[in-house]
């Protein structure tokens, strides 16, 4: 965030700019798009036509041009506009002091310059309540729950890392092997290990944790904790909103659309269609386009609840008789409570149109009561995400790409995510002046093809990737083999680039044979009997080589009493789960899944060993006692 005083803003105004930005950043990506920026500027006093907002994005979107604005760019933009227009009184009116906004001192080196972070009380309340509900039956959380949502209890209860580990598993089951969580004899070192496990695991499920360190979580900094909680909770809420889990979603197709069109929609877009589908069935005459201004009067929610609730629950339309909006919202939430869905929002959150919490409220409604008729003859198996696709998607999202990737074969078709990844892996590889970010409706297909052709050019000429027989048209068409080939090489290049950097100046680029040689040497030096020939070696399937390697680089952390003899496939899977969670706990950012070890999938095994090698090179930087 920019330093206070740069544009002669009061601390209250700086805090509110951050607050406005983060409320509209519903996907937790750290950026907002054209529509969201228009809303944000209007909130702080500028109602500008769309063409002016597009010009502002082009002017200020300079760090990693993607047609979106981050918080620093938003602050700079506001400061410039404030100089051009005298809107002091309007801003002051728009941000009349709010009792639910708290500020906390920054925790980075920038804090000495006066950086503060705004924390919204409603998010604290919503997330604390969700944790209380989600983990109420977990025996390991009994001494930590319930969390008092009104105080700072949330940040204190999360400091040992146990609740965060459990919440990740609640959102994406089996991400963390419970045996690797430090639950007893907790001290600063064991809590640090838990937080390392949290961050590595959160990254593996697609959270962007690039700017968070374990020690920062241990301090319980509210803005960091809430940001991470939202990413974890959001992933859990939206994870199953897809055709594979809910074939009935084909009912949401509009005239002339095919299933392929449904696959291109984000979970948020699907939820909006789902709400509108039930509103049409209810005959209420309303449709929505967002989870903010369109739901403020609770009318949509009241009709939706009445439509999706089982009749025996007795949900009624009675709230519509209350003409006080906050009172109506309260009665509507009482109706939601009848079907166990009174989560995330308070009456004020509904009336204020908080987009983040209302998205969570609707997602929870869908997950609990989708109320979609059973459909026949829909082959959903072909649309189910493979483990490889999921790993790649999570890796890309953890890099902070924008927009968030939901479906590989549609979300990468304009090339913009590829450009961001190229730039992350090899700074300067992208000439952003050649990248088309705002597409002309009449030329959109041609412009996307131009981008994809440029992607292939960078991949071949700057990254030295092998893309035999692959052209830009293949990427634009979402051709699966072509897309996977490029994404895999990007992921591989990212890991090897980190390794090469850590190896020090003057050393050759790290290659696969270097990783194998390093691992075997570490095993030998530690007196281990384990070794392997290459990443196709069947001996890797029981996970023992990986476990021994982890013990070689950070001795004394492996509990060998938990390591199975592998007389069955179940034993191999147990070892693989333990190996991956222990690698993450020790600081290796592993994205692969246990099945990749058991099935000896060479590509994914390469990434596992490469990530462990990165951890090995970092050495004492992550050592715990």
Automatic annotation (TrEMBL):
Which Gene3D superfamilies does the record associate with it?
Answer: Calponin-like domain, EF-hand
Kindly state a single biological-process term from the GO annotations of this entry: actin filament bundle assembly
Indicate the segments forming the Calponin-homology (CH) domain, all copies.
121-237, 265-370, 386-495, 509-617
Q: List, alphabetically, the InterPro entries matched.
A: Actinin_actin-bd_CS, CH_dom, CH_dom_sf, EF-hand-dom_pair, EF_Hand_1_Ca_BS, EF_hand_dom, Fimbrin/Plastin
What GO cellular component is one of the record's annotations?
actin filament
Keywords (alphabetical) are: Actin-binding, Calcium, Metal-binding, Repeat
Q: Which GO terms describe its molecular function?
A: actin filament binding; calcium ion binding
Which residue numbers delimit the EF-hand domain?
Answer: 12-47
The record's PROSITE patterns line, in alphabetical order, gives: ACTININ_1 (PS00019), CH (PS50021), EF_HAND_1 (PS00018), EF_HAND_2 (PS50222)
What is the protein named?
Fimbrin
Origin species: Potamilus streckersoni
Taxonomic lineage of the native organism: Eukaryota, Metazoa, Spiralia, Lophotrochozoa, Mollusca
């Amino acid at each position: 965030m920019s330093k206070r005083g740069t544009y002669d803003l009061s601390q209250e105004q700086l805090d509110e700019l951050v607050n406005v930005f983060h409320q509209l950043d519903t996907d937790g990506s750290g950026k907002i798009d054209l529509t969201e920026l228009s809303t944000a500027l209007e909130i702080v006093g500028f109602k500008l036509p769309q063409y002016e907002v597009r010009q502002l994005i082009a002017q200020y979107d300079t760090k990693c041009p993607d047609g979106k604005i981050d918080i620093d760019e938003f602050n700079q933009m506001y400061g410039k506009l404030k100089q051009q227009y005298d809107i002091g009184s309007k801003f002051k009116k728009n941000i009349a002091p709010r009792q639910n906004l708290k500020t906390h001192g920054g925790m980075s080196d920038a804090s000495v310059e006066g950086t503060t972070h705004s924390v919204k009380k409603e998010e604290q309340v919503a997330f604390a309540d969700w944790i209380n509900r989600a983990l109420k039956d977990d025996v390991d959380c009994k001494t930590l729950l319930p969390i008092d949502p009104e105080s700072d209890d949330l940040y204190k209860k999360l400091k040992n890392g146990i609740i965060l580990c459990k919440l990740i598993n609640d959102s994406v089951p089996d991400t963390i092997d419970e045996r690797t969580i430090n639950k007893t004899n907790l001290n600063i070192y064991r809590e640090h290990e838990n937080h390392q496990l949290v961050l590595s695991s959160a990254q593996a499920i697609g959270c962007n944790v690039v700017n968070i360190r374990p020690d920062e979580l241990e301090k319980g900094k509210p803005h960091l904790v809430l940001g991470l909680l939202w990413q974890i909770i959001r992933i859990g809420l939206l994870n199953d909103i897809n055709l594979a889990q809910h074939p009935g979603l084909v009912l949401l197709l509009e005239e002339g659309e095919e299933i392929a069109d449904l696959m291109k929609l984000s979970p948020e877009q699907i939820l909006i269609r789902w709400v509108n589908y039930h509103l049409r069935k209810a005959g209420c005459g309303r449709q929505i386009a967002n989870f903010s201004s369109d739901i403020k009067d609770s009318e949509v929610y009241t009709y939706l609840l009445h439509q999706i609730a089982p009749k025996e629950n007795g949900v009624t339309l009675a709230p519509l008789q209350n003409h006080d909006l906050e009172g109506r919202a309260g009665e509507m939430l009482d109706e939601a409570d009848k079907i166990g869905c009174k989560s995330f929002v308070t009456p004020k959150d509904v009336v204020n149109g908080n987009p983040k919490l209302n998205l969570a409220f609707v997602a929870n409604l869908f997950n609990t009561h989708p109320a979609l008729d059973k459909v026949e003859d829909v082959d959903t198996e072909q649309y189910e995400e493979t483990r490889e696709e999921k790993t790649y998607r999570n890796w890309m999202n953890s890099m902070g790409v924008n927009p968030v990737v939901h479906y590989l074969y549609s979300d990468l078709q304009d090339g913009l995510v590829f450009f961001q990844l190229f730039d992350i892996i090899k700074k300067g590889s992208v000439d952003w002046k050649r990248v088309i970010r705002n597409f002309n409706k009449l030329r959109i297909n041609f412009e996307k093809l131009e981008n994809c052709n440029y992607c292939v050019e960078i991949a071949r000429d700057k990254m030295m990737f092998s893309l035999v027989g692959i052209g830009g048209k293949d990427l634009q068409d979402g051709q699966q083999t072509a897309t996977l080939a490029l994404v895999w090489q990007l992921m591989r290049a990212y890991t090897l680039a980190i390794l090469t950097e850590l190896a020090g100046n003057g050393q050759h680029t790290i290659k696969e044979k270097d990783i194998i040689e390093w691992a075997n040497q570490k095993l030998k030096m530690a007196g281990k009997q384990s070794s392997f020939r290459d990443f196709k070696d069947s001996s890797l399937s029981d996970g023992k080589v990986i476990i021994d390697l982890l013990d070689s680089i950070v001795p004394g952390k492996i509990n060998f009493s938990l390591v199975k003899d592998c007389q069955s496939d179940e034993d191999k899977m147990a070892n693989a789960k333990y190996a991956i969670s222990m690698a993450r706990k020790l600081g290796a950012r592993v994205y692969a899944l246990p099945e990749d070890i058991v099935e000896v999938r060479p590509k994914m095994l390469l990434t596992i060993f490469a990530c462990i090698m990165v951890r090995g090179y970092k050495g004492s930087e992550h050592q715990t006692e």
